[in-house]
Amino acid sequence: RQRGEQFPGHRAGRGAWVVHIPTLGVRPIRSDAQVRAAIARLDGTGLVVFASVNAVEIFFDRLFELHRDARALRNSKLCAIGPETARSLELHGLVPELVSGEYTAEGLAETLGNWDLGNARILVPRARQNRDGLPATLAKRGAEAQTPPVYELAAPGGPSAALHPPFANRPALVVPRPRPAPISRPSLATP
């Protein structure tokens, strides 16, 4: 919802009655052997890539469940996809070495272009539904990428029921907000 908050505010400022109805929800996935192993191997992980605020928050929940904290990332460089993700890391006391504006696997690999990824272990905690292009793209650069899912995207419960009371006997214009298109704006590209 963070990215979409400007649109309704703009419409409300022009007299529209704005009702937020979530169309996509985030469900954390319980820690499994893959997540526990990735956290156990953090000392030897060279780079951790966080692609979303959800990935940061849920990954830290998993760290805390295993009685670890931000210090577990002390040997790893951090990459955040987008400024909101970087801010989320900063709230945990961490500053990413790289903040990328590119939201695709290929774009991220390009943003990491100056970094030596040969024999690097890279951890990318992510949504279960993510494409699998990133591990293959990073493997071409000599890296070993682990991509344990820490959350899944799902339809929230009952969005159609939420529509009835606000729009009963009223004309309505429903404007779905499309997912933003990939953009390419590296904010910092220092190896």
Descriptive terms for the model:
7 helices; six-stranded mixed β-sheet; 191 residues
Major sheet: arrangement of strands:
7-5-2-3-4-9
Main pleated sheet: 6 strands, mixed
What is the terminal-to-terminal distance? 32 Å
The best one-word shape is elongated
**Helical percentage:** 25-40%
Radius of gyration: 19 Å
Secondary structure category: alpha/beta
**For the residues shown, what is the average pLDDT?**
79
- How much of the sequence lies in strands comes to 15-25%
Number of helices, where a helix is a run of at least 4 consecutive DSSP H or I residues: 7
Count of individual beta strands: 9
Please provide the ordered H/E string of secondary-structure elements.
HEHEHEHEHEEHEEHE
The low-confidence runs, each spanning 5 or more residues with pLDDT under 50, are 180-191
Describe the protein's topology.
Blueprint: H1 6-13, E1 25-28, H2 33-40, E2 47-50, H3 53-65, E3 77-81, H4 83-91, E4 98-100, H5 105-111, E5 121-123, E6 126-127, H6 133-140, E7 144-146, E8 149-154, H7 159-167, E9 188-189
Parallel strand pairs: 2-3, 2-5, 3-4, 5-7, 6-8
Antiparallel strand pairs: 1-8, 4-9
Structure overview:
The protein is α/β, with parallel strands linked by helices. Helix content is 32%, strand content 17%. The chain has helices at residues 6-13, 33-40, 53-65, 83-91, 105-111, 133-140, 159-167, and strands at 25-28, 47-50, 77-81, 98-100, 121-123, 126-127, 144-146, 149-154, 188-189. Strand 3 (77-81), helix 4 and strand 4 form a beta-alpha-beta unit. The longest helix has 13 residues, at 53-65.
